[in-house]
Amino acid sequence: MKKLQFNAPVILGFFFVSLLSLVLGLLTSGASTTAVFSVYRASLLDPLTYVRFFGHVLGHADLTHFFNNMLLLLVVGPPLEKLYGSKTITAGIIATALITGILQFVFFPHTLLLGASGIVFMLIMLSSFSGAKTGQIPVTLILVALMYLGQEVYSIFFIRDNVANLIHIVGGICGIGLGLQLRGKA
Q1: Structurally, how many domains does the chain consist of?
Q2: For every one of its 186 residues, what pLDDT tens digit does the chain have, with 9 covering 90 and above?
């Protein structure tokens, strides 16, 4: 009998904590999601405000939102965690969560943000750097950035939905920044 392999502890941990937050949200009719797993303008005296700067990436509105983010996370994340290591992926997730959380808090005070999309797009852009050598910019990075960023910019101006396209772009920029730092190190 074959053993299960816990091949990407950070990515799998992120998945299971996100799943737990979704279940808690469903059991509390969204109260836990709003209290801990979303970011929005709140008093800086409220300790949960600081938790939400990070926790918002673990929250999801419903099963469809969760599945859409987690499918991409589980496809893109494990090879990156193997390539760059768990500490690097953890640092990328934490930095992206904090940056997107603060930007949401400051610039969109009346809008609630939740979901792992910023993290997913950070990982997508980071994956475009795979195998890049110092001093080189992969053509795949340029193509992915043009297609991805172009789609997000288009959506900002021409599609009205509840998708935080600017946060997706910021997540992608975080992935590019991390990829530039890691070039030639994997």
Answers
A1: 1
A2: 788 888 999 999 999 999 999 999 999 999 999 999 999 999 999 999 999 999 999 999 999 999 999 999 999 999 999 999 999 999 999 999 999 999 999 998 888 999 999 999 999 999 988 776 777 778 888 888 888 888 877 877 776 666 677 888 899 999 999 998 887 666
CATH number of the structural domain spanning residue 34:
1.20.1540.10
* 1 in any annotated domain: no
What dihedral angle (degrees, nearest 10) is formed by the CA atoms of 60, 66, 71, 76? 0
**pTM, 2 dp:** 0.90
4 within a domain of the structure (yes/no): no
Q: Where in the sequence is the domain holding 116, given as residue range(s)?
A: 9-182
Residue 135: inside a domain: yes
